[in-house]
Design goal:
CATH architecture of the largest domain: 2-Layer Sandwich
Strand order of the largest sheet: 8-11-10-9-12-13
CATH topology of the largest domain: Nucleotidyltransferase, domain 5
Largest sheet: 6 strands, mixed
CATH superfamily of the largest domain: Ribonuclease H-like superfamily/Ribonuclease H
Radius of gyration: 30 Å
Number of domains: 5
CATH class of the largest domain: Alpha Beta
């Protein structure tokens, strides 16, 4: 076998004779740095090299952003381009000697690796998302500093990755931050803990110090999102101002020590990372405490992308800290049980958490002030205080109803498995056992069944099954069975997902008869709340699952207070719209009723119309009203005539005509949306009345459609969500000030534009008025009284039976 390059092990390369050889260059001069890509592309070959490709041109812009213009030599982890664009690990290994030799010949400077294949080639490690974090890396094979980062081509498809590329390229030109390992003291007796706390109390009496805190219990707060009270407290890390971190162990945490900690927290500015976890974890010992500064929320104010606000990520990226959690990962196992960590290592880890949280606070508070985001951070900290109560109290579960529902789901799922196996047996009696022959959860088995029916599938996901059902021609082999199986498979997957999340998932998470969902203030780019374990904001509207959520006492009720068309009203405010605003400001008028004749000239609402009436007139009116809603609610998401035509099976010309009529009555909104598109193209931030920013850093042909649709939705959606969040925060503060009794009203859930409250039956009317007033007041402030908001309230003895 003739090798394609003198230094490649082509004999052991799976790409040899199975991929297109793209040729190679050799360094003919020294360069400032070397860049290693994954596999070669045709555009590199025919456009005169990497620098002339779209990725190369993007890299040049990033260099220019940093005020640099370095010379570089470009190579790739492999020399051949597989047709399926998948590079086997063995191919990377076979080409590694060539890559390392080219690096040695080209530079003594840094090496930048684009993507997983390049990182594997130079570092022997993969997983670039985690690998890129923090200072430069070292290779076992070369002396150069190595900077792994995301491939520029990926950034063109996924705009959210572009800031990572910009940050990582900046590491080429800096020596990085020098992190000083913190000294710390472990306090293992109550006497030692009290002596230190009393000493700190006397020295900080004349000012309000920062008190940075971090707890360690038997779960990892950044990943587990469990209720901390369920888990054993292992230690508490504390640091006053810029003093040395102290770790108070569980041996030292007696009642007297907790009392002094409580007193210190009450008079200090409490600083934490994801503070509602730590403060709720200490709540049984110190009562409810207020959060002064949260580094996670500060990071989120400055960068609304998700997945970049964990403490370890930020400590490495912004402070130059080592990956100090690597040591603990050896011990915690898949359950992430921190009690398995040797105490000496755990205490060091806790001290690092405290020190890094403090340093990040100092780093972020300057940036928040510079960018005018201090008030947004304060707003989110207050919201976090409110969510502490929601999470801590949780929601009561009707255990008997849950058990019965679990049995119903199990039976329904089992029946579907049986019927699908019968269908498989009908298709191929020799290939399947009657009634027990196919696993619907196995994509391979589903593909095999469809292949037996003469249908080749590349995927078995939901979109594929919907495409099967939407296929207009009859399938040649048993068309009825194909469609019946695809329908049942979709139903089966929906049921198993609901069962796993809301039935067995709730059973696993039950604690004192309740479940305690975790709410994420930093979980979306728009600022909308998200929740998990379980997700209480995504239960299907009419699902029987909601009925298992009940008040904690038989003489209590649930109240749901929901904004009516909040996003549309905020849109009217932003655009200075007249059409919608006039309708919203008159409580006797209905937006959709008035728009039906606009889109369908001559349409008249039937007298005494009711939704359940099935007469021809009422049915037609209802269909037309539904279509109107599609156009209205599609406003914020850039829905086009093509999407509507496809979704409703109507001609594109008809959909286009409807949109033109609709847009003719809302010219201010049309112009506002044009201005939003222009702002995004000009690189301007979108900023809401609450100070949230949406930053779009890279527009390409590949991502511009999605970005523009998201941009149109951002301002109304984010603002409507924050209006509700502020109202909930104020109501919770009202409870603290006015309801000092045991069975006081409380928020038990928030769902986007709705606040859900539990209170005593005798207080339902009063509490409904109080919450409604807070909601209307919050909205009026946000839109400066331009458009009136409205709320609807419903009451019941379970979430599923509100009326």
């Amino acid at each position: 076998m003739e090798p394609l390059h003198p230094l490649t092990d082509c004999e052991n390369c799976p790409l040899y004779n199975n991929a297109e050889f793209m040729g190679y260059d050799s360094p003919d001069h020294r360069a400032d740095l070397v860049i290693v890509g994954g596999m070669p592309s045709a555009t590199e070959k025919y456009n005169g090299g990497f620098c002339n490709t779209t990725s190369g041109k993007l890299l040049s812009k990033v260099f220019k952003h940093h005020g640099k213009n370095p010379t570089y030599y470009y190579t790739t982890a492999v020399l051949c381009r597989p047709e399926d664009k998948k590079v086997p690990a063995k191919a990377v290994v076979a080409c590694r000697p060539r890559v390392l030799a080219e690096i040695a010949a080209a530079t003594d400077g840094p090496v930048v690796t684009f993507g997983n294949e390049a990182a594997t080639s130079v570092l022997g490690r993969t997983g670039v998302t985690a690998l890129r974090v923090g200072p430069f890396k070292r290779s076992d094979w070369i002396p150069n500093k190595v900077i792994p980062t995301v491939n520029p081509y990926v950034c063109m498809m996924q705009e959210a990755r572009f800031p990572d590329l910009v940050t990582d390229i900046g590491k080429i030109f800096s020596n990085g931050k020098e992190f000083v390992e913190p000294d710390f003291e472990v306090l293992d007796t109550p006497e030692d803990a009290l002596a230190w706390l009393y000493a700190e109390g006397s020295t900080t009496r004349l000012h309000v110090p920062d008190l940075t805190m971090d707890i360690e219990c038997t779960i990892d707060k950044d990943e587990s999102f469990g209720h901390p009270e369920r888990h054993v407290m292992l230690c508490v890390g504390m640091k006053f101002d810029d003093g040395m971190p102290r770790v108070i162990t569980d041996n030292a945490l007696n009642a007297e020590v907790w009392l002094i900690i409580k007193q210190m927290m009450l008079r200090c500015n409490v600083v934490a990372q994801n503070g509602k976890f730590d403060l709720n974890g200490m709540r049984p010992y110190v009562g409810k405490q207020k959060l002064g500064f949260d580094t996670m929320l500060a990071s989120y104010c400055l960068d609304e992308r998700t997945g970049t606000h964990g403490l370890k990520y930020m400590a490495q990226e912004f402070l130059g800290a080592p990956a100090y959690d690597d040591e603990v990962k050896k011990f915690i196992g898949p359950q992430r049980d921190f009690s398995k960590i040797p105490r000496e290592i755990l205490y060091r880890y806790n001290a690092y958490d405290v020190e890094c949280t403090y340093l990040l606070k100092k780093y972020f508070e300057v940036l928040l002030e510079e960018h005018g985001l201090t008030e947004l951070h304060r707003f989110l900290c207050e919201a976090s205080d409110m969510l502490m109560d929601v999470e801590y109290e949780g929601i009561t579960i009707d255990k008997e109803y849950l058990d019965n529902l679990a049995a119903e789901f199990d039976l329904s799922i089992m029946r579907k498995e049986h019927f699908m196996s019968l269908m498989a047996y009908e298709v191929n009696p020799k290939g399947y056992t009657r009634g027990d022959g196919i696993n619907p959860a196995s994509p391979l088995q589903i593909k095999k069944l469809f292949m037996d029916l003469g249908i080749r599938l590349d995927s078995t996901d939901e979109d594929t099954m919907l495409n099967v059902l939407a296929y207009e021609k009859p399938f040649p082999n048993n068309d009825e069975l194909v469609r019946k199986f695809a329908t049942m498979l979709l139903e089966y997957r929906k049921e198993t997902k609901l069962n796993g999340t809301y039935i067995t998932g709730v059973k696993d998470r039950l604690y004192k008869g309740r479940i305690n969902s975790s709410y994420l203030l930093h979980g979306t780019t728009t600022g909308r709340l998200s929740s998990r374990n379980p997700n209480l904001q995504n239960i299907p509207r009419d699902s029987p699952i909601k009925t298992m959520y009940i008040p904690s006492r038989s003489d209590n009720s649930f109240i749901n207070i929901d904004y009516s068309q909040a996003e549309l009203r905020t849109l009217a405010y932003f655009a200075g719209d007249h059409y919608f605003t006039e309708i919203f400001n008159d409580s006797d008028r209905d937006v959709f009723d008035e728009l039906v004749p606009v889109l369908y000239p001559g349409a008249v609402k039937p007298q005494n119309h009711v939704d359940k009436c099935k007469c021809d007139e009422c049915r037609l009116w209802k269909e037309e009203r539904t279509m109107v809603k599609t156009y209205v609610y599609g406003l914020n998401y850039g829905r086009t005539e093509f999407g509507i035509a496809h979704g409703f099976g109507i001609p594109v010309e008809v959909a286009r005509g409807h949109m033109q009529k609709f847009f003719s009555v809302i010219p201010e909104i049309v112009n506002w949306q044009k201005s939003i598109r222009k702002m995004v193209k000009d690189g301007e931030d979108l900023v809401t009345p609450f100070g949230r920013h949406r930053r779009y850093t890279l527009l390409t042909d590949e991502n511009i459609k999605n970005i523009m649709n998201e941009a149109l939705a951002f301002m109304p959606q984010s603002t409507a969500s924050d209006i509700c969040l502020r109202a909930a925060t104020r109501f919770n503060q009202w409870i603290e000030q006015n309801c000092d009794y045991e069975n006081h009203p409380r928020i038990f859930n928030l769902v986007h534009d709705a606040i859900m409250v539990e209170c005593h039956d005798d207080e339902v009317e009063h509490i409904t008025d109080v919450v409604s007033n807070f909601m209307l007041q919050s909205a009026d402030e946000a839109v400066e009284g331009y458009v009136k908001f409205a709320v609807d309230a419903s009451v019941g003895k379970s979430w599923g039976k509100l009326s």
